[in-house]
Amino acid sequence: MTTSFAPLTVAIGDLVPHPANVRSNSPETYDPENIAHLKASIAILGLLQPLLVQKLDGKYAVLAGGRRHAALKELIADKASKGFTAKTKVDCRLVPDDCDVTTALSLAENITQAPMNAIDEFEAFARMMEVDGQTPETIAKTFGTTVAAVKGRLRYGLIHPDIRAAARGKVITLDTMKAFAEHPSQEAQREVFEALTKDGGYLQAYTVRQTLKSRGVQVSDDIGAFVREDYEARSGAVAADLLEEHSVLEDAALVETILLEKLGAAAEEARIKLGFAWADAMVRYDYATMADYGRVYPGPIEPDEAARKRIDEITAGLEKLQLEMENEGLEDGAYNALYERVDALEEEARDLQEAYSTEDLARAGVIASWSSGQVTLHVGLVRPEDTVKEEGKRGVSTSPTGEEAPDPGEISYPASLAEDLKTERAMALGAAMALHPEATLDLTLFKLVSDVLASGMSVTQAIKIDARKEYRNHAKMDEIDETSLAQVAAAHDVLDLSWLDDTRPPADQFAAFRALDAGEKAKLVAYATASTTQSCFARDPRRDSLMHAFEIEIMPDIRAHWTPNAALFNRFKKAWLLKILGEHLGLAQEAVTLASSSKKEIVAFCDKLFAEPFATLTDAQRAAVAAWCPPMMQTAGVAFDEAKPTAETPEPDSEVAQAA
């Protein structure tokens, strides 16, 4: 019957309301505020659905589509709108004179009433900004929505066309499509999309976001804001977003380099000011890693005459400030300013009455790290090799246990590599937790209950029970072994998320959640807790016995969740690689053969060796390859040193050692 509604185009000026339109007697329906969204949509996308009209008295009366008709008239009246005049023609369908009006209206419900696709709306917002030069504020006013909502739509409308097409075709979900907006570069989006879909399978929003994080740092991130000026001065690539806060500093390695340089400069400035022996920097200060470091503190000294005079001045100033702070009429800003002055004067007074000893200054140092969006200084730290001195002689150092300090030629790990290995270890632990839901549920509930009911410090700081995913920083996230990512993704795929529906009230969602099977709840809690695991190395049983024991239980062997690959070996020196092959893995002959090869060739050999141990390996060599990882990556279980084939390890003066 729809074929009798012949298509035609009609000038907007020739359209009039139809007396049979059921909304014609509801003036509020056509209020400009009520049709603002529709007006903006038609201005960008055109009339997506034709009007249903009937010929009356030489005009075309709008039988269905009165609001669209009103929006068209508003566009004619709005001189800022382009391309809409009384002579502009729009698509219509003609209802024959002999057609029953009730039937026509019923058909109109099926023919002309179609909701706007979400992706269409995203693209419409983007075109309004790109083509018409509108701002988020003007778009928000036009659509009757918030600026924040407009900003969100703008980002999604600029996602790579191939990805938007995949969302339209239901190949990926709308949520997964939105995840690509984390990076404004369509080229980066396309590369990640192709890499993640090349083997087929279900693509998750979480995986997209994690992969894109390795492609740079947003300028709105605290680190991005901190390094941006220096980054741009070095011509670092910036992926510009329509909205400034979503722009990305694309060179993650350069960002980390600059951050470490600035942290190092801050540490050096503090070293000079305080008179310490050394300064260092690390992106994240890990207390477990630094557990073996000692610490020195300033002791009391007798101030000289000038210092005593200044102390008296400070004392008088503090008394005056305390009286000012007792004024109950002070506003918060004024009170806080006085408080900061008091704090500064008290610190100055302490400095005049305390000092580090000459001996402590000669062995202690400063480490600068990035914490809570700012540079944090850790002063008075003493390296393990400097904590005990043989026969009191400076420069001859031993470890805290009395053993000789490591040989300078031994493998050492730069701060940047150590930070990244901590990230990879946290990811592996997260995978293990997700795969052991019952144990992880017990841990989560125990921490939650203990932290609330017990007195004193938290039972562990290794996991966060505040429902926030841990941000995992890594210089080369897109190159690391993906075993743990795949395991977490698989754990996510089997979660029962039927209760998670934003369209339902929280109470209804909670009721649905409570109705889940206990096993399903355990999986959900385990997955959520796994997402909070922090970057760290093996737990110190003296400092965190709970997590130390828990890791032994669920992850005795990190190699079940992580495999060393080229991304790691590329960051090792050639001599280290030969040492690992010859001494740690018992591949003495291979190490000798590769000694004359380039580092690239050695890296490729190691990558293949660990990806799939060669059939020619002995049982001992195979066991060593299966167990090896950098020492700090070990959780507990069997250390790789115990698994290496000692019988085949060359002596220090062997040809392998000489080649290395």
From TrEMBL:
CDD domains: ParB_N_like. Keywords: Coiled coil. Residues 335-362 form a coiled coil. SUPFAM superfamilies: KorB DNA-binding domain-like, ParB/Sulfiredoxin. Residues 8-111 form the ParB-like N-terminal domain. Residues 386-412 are annotated as: Disordered. One of its GO terms (cellular component) is chromosome. One of its GO terms (biological process) is chromosome segregation. InterPro entries: Chromosome_partition/occlusion, HTH_ParB/Spo0J, ParB/Sulfiredoxin_sf, ParB_N. This is Chromosome partitioning protein, ParB family.
